[in-house]
What we know:
The protein is of the alpha+beta class. 34% of the residues lie in helices and 39% in strands. Strands 1, 2, 3, 4, 5, 6 and 7 form a seven-stranded antiparallel beta sheet that branches. It is globular and about 45 Å long. The two termini are 17 Å apart.
Amino acid sequence: MAIKQLTVFVPNRKGTIVAVTDILAKNNINMRALSIAETEDFGILRLIVNDETAAEKVLNESDYLIKVVDVVGVKIGDEPGKLTEALDVLDKADINVEYLYAFMARTEKHAYVVLRVENNECAENALTSAGFKLITEADVNKL
C-alpha cells in the first residue's frame, strides 16, 4: 500500500527547483506533495506526483539523479494532537520515523502526512490497527 516518492538530488543554486518543476509541468505531471532539504552544496527534493513512472523517466532523461522510495501515507484529523496520536502509535510499535512532511488535501477535516519509516508494513499495520486510514497511490491521484 506504499506510496512512491521521488527523491531528486539537485545542486543548491538558483534556478534548480524551477528547472525540475518546469520539466514536470511540460510533461503534464502534477505534484501532490513536495519537500526540500538542503546542504551547502546540494538539495534533496522529495516529491509525490500523479505519475511516478513518467516523472522518473523525464527527470532521468534530463540527467537528474533520482531515487524512488516507498513511503507511508496516512490521513489524520486536521485538529491539534492528531499528528501526535499517529506518531505515538509508531513510537509504541518501536518504529523509527526518519522524516515526514504534510501536504494539502481538498478537504477541511483532514490532513495527509507522508512518513519515511524503517519498515512500511509494520507502520501500516500499527496505524491501521489504531484506526488510522492509510492513503494509497489511487487516493493521491484523486487529489
